[in-house]
Design brief:
Number of helices: 10
Structural class: alpha/beta
Oligomer: single chain
Number of strands: 5
Order of helices and strands: EHEHEHEHEHHHHHH
Strand content: 5-15%
Largest sheet: 5 strands, parallel
Shape: globular
Length: 218
């Protein structure tokens, strides 16, 4: 999608934490290169607003109240294939970046990234390029060769992978259900499928696996 006549990059923010969303809005509003086209707390709100708004770059979080951010990438691309999506997540790059890029995102940054890096990423993806680190390039290379696909956690869906990481950090099924706005039975079902797909017997084994593969902080 072409930029507005002002020459500014039209950024849409999808973030469920009000304070962080406000900080991003102020940040992009005060920069001469960008303007805020809109904001939303959920993925559904974004899709609804996309019907009437012109957007160049979507700033998208992984954890949303209504849907996994990785699954939202595909839905956004269905609505506007040419839109650039920059993932801005609290989760480390090792955990979700490859999945995000393979799903169609143009870049991945953590929320601890300095403002200059965020702005550089927005400008780069708005030009139709990708913003990825050298470490992520190596991970993507392995993925394209099919080497990473042999790992048990690569068999998981995006939602299962998200729940697996949450379980591995010690969160209870009740805590996960509340955070993801899902029923307790749904989380139990996902947990069962995760263990079966990965060939594990229990949560302690899952925690050890995730730690040894660098999917969570040791």
């Amino acid at each position: 999608m072409k930029k507005a006549n002002t020459g500014k990059i039209r950024v849409f923010i999808v973030e469920d934490h009000p304070l962080f969303r406000q900080g991003l809005r102020v940040f992009f509003s005060n920069d001469q290169a960008t303007t805020v086209a809109g904001e939303a707390e959920t993925g559904r709100e974004l899709l609804e607003q996309m019907k009437t708004k012109s957007i160049d770059v979507v700033i998208l979080d992984i954890s949303l109240p209504d849907e996994n951010g990785l699954d939202m990438i595909k839905e956004i691309k269905k609505c506007q294939p040419g839109i650039a999506i920059l993932m801005l997540s609290a989760h480390p790059e090792k955990r979700y970046a490859v999945r995000a890029i393979k799903a169609g995102a143009s870049g991945y940054l953590t929320k601890s990234s300095p403002p200059k890096a965020v702005m550089a990423a927005v400008q780069k993806v708005a030009r139709g390029e990708h913003y990825i680190s050298s470490r992520l390039v190596d991970e993507l290379a392995l993925s394209l060769k099919g080497e990473s696909g042999s790992r048990p956690h690569d068999l998981l869906s995006n939602r299962e992978f998200q729940i697996m990481c949450m379980l591995a950090t010690g969160k209870t099924t009740s805590e996960i259900a509340e955070e993801l706005c899902l029923s307790l039975s749904t989380i139990f079902t996902h947990r069962t499928h995760i263990l079966e797909k990965m060939g594990l017997k229990n949560t302690p084994q899952l925690m050890f696996y995730a730690s040894s593969h660098g999917l969570i902080d040791s």
